[in-house]
Write a structure and sequence with these properties.
2 copies of one chain form a homodimer. Chain A has a domain of 134 residues: Tetracycline Repressor, domain 2 (Orthogonal Bundle), CATH 1.10.357.10. Helix content of chain A is 60%, strand content 0%. Chain A is mainly alpha-helical. Chain A is globular and about 60 Å long. Chain A has 11 helices and no strands. In chain A, helix 1 packs across helix 3, helix 6 crosses helix 7 and helix 7 packs antiparallel against helix 10. The longest helix of chain A is centred in the C-terminal third of the chain and has 21 residues. At the A-B interface, helix 5, helix 6, helix 7, helix 9 and helix 10 of A face helix 5, helix 6, helix 7, helix 9 and helix 10 of B. Chain A binds a DNA duplex through loops.
Chain lengths: 239, 239
DNA sequence: ACCTGAACACCGTTCAAGT
DNA sequence: ACCTGAACACCGTTCAAGT
């Protein structure tokens, strides 16, 4: 029997299963949608049921994949001001997750946060508390930061609404959604200007948009902190 | 032949298919995960393939369901200041979507935004432009608002990490994630105080968290607008 | 201990046929 | 025009059996 037919030195463990699953989702266009227990087993040269010795079911496989990826987030930097430290850690999370485009969707779809995700959230709250924010404000700040905490935002808006260069279709879209068209044209103009060297730039740059939103939120939270904001006070003010 | 066996007055049209699918996802605990073409057909007293005359495939069915729901968002109020108008429209989107808990996940999972979603985004940009914001700032503001534009945020953080009242488990979780535990305890305390009438309240109230984040973002964007922010200037400042 | 074979209860979708 | 029956190529998972 040749090596490829059945002999296997390393008898398949949880780590190897998760690593193969992550590699598969990274490689395939469909990400985890293209991943099935059967195809993963085939990739490992094993019958599907063999996987169930190392992973309880598909959901646990997905949770394990998430933890593998989220475990790669750098530990928070010590010493910086809280805003800088949170900013750095969130950008580190973004770097870790951008290598695995399927991860954000899986994290959101799982019924409960995984241990590595909880660890990351706990670390960010720790940075806010170390910066002097009350547990109350830290709590609401975490809500405001939301999905951005893990380095992703829903790409709802800049998912190109067709990727259609057909000028006829584009014109019809522009007629129906004039404000979207104007904003898109502005971004395109700024980008072209940047290429010509006639302006510093603009356009729709993922990283820039991410940092813009992150900074609006961090600045707003800092302002509340300095003003002595409390949720009790905020509720009282509304009444 | 009895009515229940085969005779059907209304011969099944797209609208009836979509309405039945929405009703099914609303009723079932699993939402759209529990929805299959076969079960939907059974519900309509029809063989599965009959659906394919009214809907190209399952993805188009899901897109149609989203448009049915998003179409229920109220039109923007006229006359108010831009911040108030955007706030109102986003809260209206939230009200429309909260009746269909499966909708946010489906909207994010679809490969392209549906017409009704594009219409909503276009309307919000229109409000920002009417308020005097540049197309440039409006563009970045839309990114900052992100998923909140449709009235939802990922419930990553307050998805109770086990819904476990077992005190042993809770103690172990608190030991591993001390900052999460502290924040949770603060929220619980504030809530209890609110019930006792000894304080105005706090706790983890979905609606309050949503408005908190929304207002941090809107206030930050207004501040940039009043300060004459441009993306070109922001990029230049970094260099 | 770890892996296998056969089977169960599902999927979405195509195609040729019915009325 | 609208619906059907039978079939195809998949799923995740269980169970009893093998080594």
């Amino acid at each position: 029997m040749s090596e490829s037919e059945g002999v296997r030195r390393t008898p398949l463990n949880r780590e190897r299963v998760l690593a193969a699953a992550v590699a598969f989702a990274d490689r395939e266009a469909g990400g985890t949608d293209a991943l099935s227990m059967r195809k993963l087993a085939q990739e490992l040269g094993v019958v599907p049921m063999a996987l169930y010795k190392h992973v309880a079911n598909k959901e646990e496989l997905l949770a394990g994949m998430v933890d593998t990826v989220v475990g790669g987030i750098d530990p928070p930097a010590a010493g910086a001001d809280w805003k800088g430290a949170v900013r750095e850690r969130v950008l580190s999370a973004r770097r870790a997750l951008r290598r695995h485009p399927w991860a954000p969707r899986v994290i959101e779809a799982l019924p409960a946060p995984t241990p590595a995700v909880l660890g990351h959230l706990d670390a960010v709250i720790g940075l806010l508390r170390a910066g002097g924010l009350s547990a109350d404000l830290a709590h609401h700040a975490m809500h405001a930061l939301g999905g951005r905490l893990l380095g992703f935002t829903q790409e709802l808006f800049d998912a190109s609404p067709e990727a259609a260069p057909d000028p006829g279709v584009a014109a019809r879209l522009a007629a129906r959604y004039p404000h979207i068209a104007e904003v898109a044209a502005t971004a395109a103009h700024a980008e072209r200007a940047a290429e010509d060297g006639t302006a510093v730039g603009g356009g729709c740059d993922d990283q820039f948009e991410f940092e813009f939103a992150l900074d609006v939120l961090l600045d707003g939270i800092e302002r509340l902190h300095l003003a002595g904001w409390t949720s009790t006070g905020a509720r009282r003010a509304v009444q």
